[in-house]
Fold this protein.
Amino acid sequence: MTKPPGSLGRLEEVLLRYTGIRGLEPPRELRAAALIFCADHGVVEEGVSAWPSEVTRQMVLNFVSGGAAINVLCRHYGIVPRIVDMGVQGTAVAGALDRRIAEGTRNFARQPAMTAAQARQAIAVGRQLAMEAAREFDVVLCGEMGIGNTTAATALLCAYADLDPAEVTGAGAGLNEEGVRRKVEVIRKALAFHPSRERMEIAANFGGFEILAIAGAIEGAVEARIPVILDGFISTAAALVVNPEARWPVLYSHRSAEAGHRRMLDYLGARPLLDLDMRLGEGTGAALAVGILQAACRLYHDMATFEQASVSGKTVACAPRPDEERA
């Protein structure tokens, strides 16, 4: 193509990653689906969120009606959103896919967030939805909604990476300093209460139904050979749950402003595409990354080659400077 090799930087890298995962030439028009998994968290009872659990349902209704940030970005980039109710408190949310496991997880400060069977069920839902999406789309992005889920994601990070909660706990959706300190102590006590270091037991002890569904989507992406773009801190926590060898279809969209996300990405050895100080969730960062991947596909298909543009493709050596000649 009419450019120096490597001059498009990470646009070239992401396209190579896409083709390596897919095993196919990239499409000119990228077809993308967004799986937005939603669920409540029992640990909210401990005062770890600035918002009550009812906001989860209210936001899921906002997703269904098309008024949230993720809806705007999906319309902008031509992404098809699929809102999945994994366990929102109350009755099933009208307009969302009903894959409910329970009305939210249990309070992991006092008992495991879910049973082993529920954990397997949540993973199975995500796997199935990702594999279904692969029949129609070229890429799947994952987002989430669930009041209290930064607490769950932080607990997962601390349990898997053996970190002190004080190092990685953030404000989530708006906690003040006192609230963050309380959140740290809740997570610290829960880690002591659930000392297991077995991968799936950690997931059941601290995870959310939406987080484990995203982990399942990653596993489904392995089977379907489709790239899965993860959003921010919560979505990336799902990558901790799966076996390391199952992470190869994952593209990491952005580095969240949430305190623990940098440490989480470092632990995973991941380099995200964007760093915009975002911390909304919903899949918003992943939607922006779809735009980058779409741009890379267009460049691949629409740029002229050196031959087509009658541009010399030879590399011409620069003449040495006089001081170099003397040397």
User: Anything to note?
Assistant: The chain has a mean pLDDT of 95. The domain at 10-326 is CATH 3.40.50.10210 (Rossmann fold).
